[in-house]
Write a structure and sequence with these properties.
Elements: E1 2-11, E2 14-24, E3 29-33, H1 40-48, E4 53-60, E5 63-64, H2 70-75, E6 78-81, H3 93-101, H4 113-118, H5 120-123, H6 135-147, E7 153-157, H7 165-180, E8 185-189, H8 193-199, E9 202-207, E10 210-216, H9 222-229
Parallel strand pairs: 3-8, 3-9, 6-7, 7-8
Antiparallel strand pairs: 1-2, 1-4, 4-5, 9-10
Helix pairs in contact: 3-6
Bound molecules: adenosine-5'-triphosphate (ATP).
Residues 11, 14, 16, 34, 36-42, 51 line the site of adenosine-5'-triphosphate.
């Protein structure tokens, strides 16, 4: 479904991602792992065309989107839940979700019912300022906003980082449900090995912007984790 070939990404003259080849299959949860600073977020931002300069190809369902502006990639079906959530200050919950609807290619501006099924809490707080929600609730709002784009692939950057432990399980459950029950392809940057092992079908571990290891989730051994992820 998503095919990267010889992808290179740069911030100015800093070369962050090096000749990366990656294939994400339709219907899977694909996990991107690695220590801090290896380029995981940069890789996601390259997929979305945010800030980075890239070389190489990015194909989504056979269409090369590597030159497309970010809004076109969103319209084409990449939903993005950024690290840190990036809830827009000054907008209420509903307005934040509707920002996602603006990226829909079919012109519809209604919120997909799935959003309310997964996050009924949000429906009860539509007029609250998004930034007044707790961290966990803001994360749910960020996922809701991405789902409002009606994506075919959902890209999440450390969705449970810094979230209260009691909400982490809810968010993980929602991500798994989106994949298993609703067929959404998911690309997940994750530091929590436990969740990567239980949720993902396949993984890649990055080191200095290159693939250090890759395989099926069952092959994510303690040895690989020690070698490429311990501090
Ligand atoms: N906007 C930027 N301008 C210049 N360099 C950047 C920028 N953002 C990140 N970098 C650098 O790019 C490299 C990769 O950073 P990136 O955030 O992609 O790593 P990461 O694996 O996602 O790490 P983390 O787990 O800490 O988020 C780092 O050396 C970082 O300092």
């Amino acid at each position: 479904m998503l095919k990267l070939r010889k992808l290179n990404a740069y911030y100015g003259t800093s070369h962050i991602i090096h000749d990366l080849d990656l294939d994400v299959r339709k219907g899977e949860i694909f996990c991107i792992l690695g220590r801090n600073g290896v380029g995981k977020t940069t890789l996601l931002r390259s997929l979305l065309g945010i800030d980075t300069r890239t070389r190489g190809s990015i194909e989504l369902d056979g269409v090369d989107i590597s030159e497309a502006p970010t809004y076109k990639r969103a319209q084409f079906g990449i939903g993005y839940v950024p690290q840190g959530r990036e809830i827009v200050p000054g907008l209420n919950v509903l307005e934040n979700i509707l920002l996602g609807c603006n990226a829909r290619s079919d012109g519809r501006r209604d919120v997909p019912p799935l959003v309310w099924t997964l996050f009924p809490f949000l429906k009860e707080h539509l007029t609250r300022r998004g930034t007044n929600l707790s961290g966990g609730q803001q994360q749910q709002l960020a996922i809701a906003r991405a789902l409002a784009t009606d994506p075919r692939v959902l890209v999440l950057d450390e969705p449970t980082e810094g979230i209260q432990p009691n909400v982490v399980a809810d968010i993980e459950k929602a991500i798994v449900s989106l994949n298993r029950d609703h067929g959404l392809t998911v690309i997940l940057v994750e530091q929590k090995i436990r969740f990567a092992r239980t949720a993902a079908q396949r993984f890649v571990i990055l080191e200095k912007g290159r693939v250090a290891a890759a395989g099926a989730a069952a092959e994510l051994s303690n040895e690989l984790v020690r070698k490429h992820m311990s501090l």
